């Protein structure tokens, strides 16, 4: 795979990134290590994780994913030097006091979180260090309306950038990024970085898939003009776009056993459990079948080939799933299929935004 520059940074990454939030919950450590090794074998050397993983978030598994990756590095000498490693500092608590107490995210929080991630990952430097969700109040994870009355921000963006800048200067972080961000947030981080000589964000990791294309409603222009890259997560919409829920639905006795969206209530309460999300997914999945593609091929090819996307983050629970997702790379969608995709979106818009 030809590597792609990440924003205006010196990082070059593969157009597919291995997401790891299943490691330590759905995926045990031996399987996770096998997936990591197979990913590297097939040329995907870009890995994304976070201090709060595994998902769904629980006190008992907080940090487990980073620990598993760190153990893989230790068991595979030389692997760390081949990997572009991304992780994330959690934003304000959002009901997870074991990750972050209170409503803010101080400079001390950022520094402590970075040191914790470095320790668990058994590495001296993080290549891409991202803010997992904004410190200020924004509508994310299925919420779509901004409400200024809910604002609880305590740490200005300038202070967050200064904290990240100290980590870069100390050699503990190479490049910084954002996640679950808005056009305002991206503009403000770039503006303040340029005004004060602080690190410039290279990327934004946001949801982007067939049933959640809100990125195209202004954020894509913002990032294009500012030279910031998109890391697209959940390209298969937590499995909705694989077709496995088409007949059974996401709940009930016939729902796939062990699947994230059917197993965890916290996941269903967010965007992926919305009835319109499954209704839209069924239409896209049938479109794929009508054109001789699997639903997974259609959904991944959509992300793999969009100009807005620098790298697509794939999350898997087995080596077989990894191979299936990687085999979809290179699939092209005809003009007719792309037109049909846009027609479906016009009918149902972004039900999992």
TrEMBL record:
InterPro entries: AKR (IPR020471), AKR_Detox_Biosynth (IPR050523), NAD(P)_OxRdtase_dom_sf (IPR036812), NADP_OxRdtase_dom (IPR023210). CDD domains: AKR_Tas-like. The lineage of its organism: Bacteria, Pseudomonadati, Pseudomonadota, Betaproteobacteria, Burkholderiales. Keywords: Oxidoreductase. One of its GO terms (molecular function) is oxidoreductase activity. It comes from Acidovorax cavernicola. It comes from the Bacteria. Residues 15-344 form the NADP-dependent oxidoreductase domain. Pfam families: Aldo_ket_red (PF00248). This is Aldo/keto reductase. Coiled coil: none annotated.
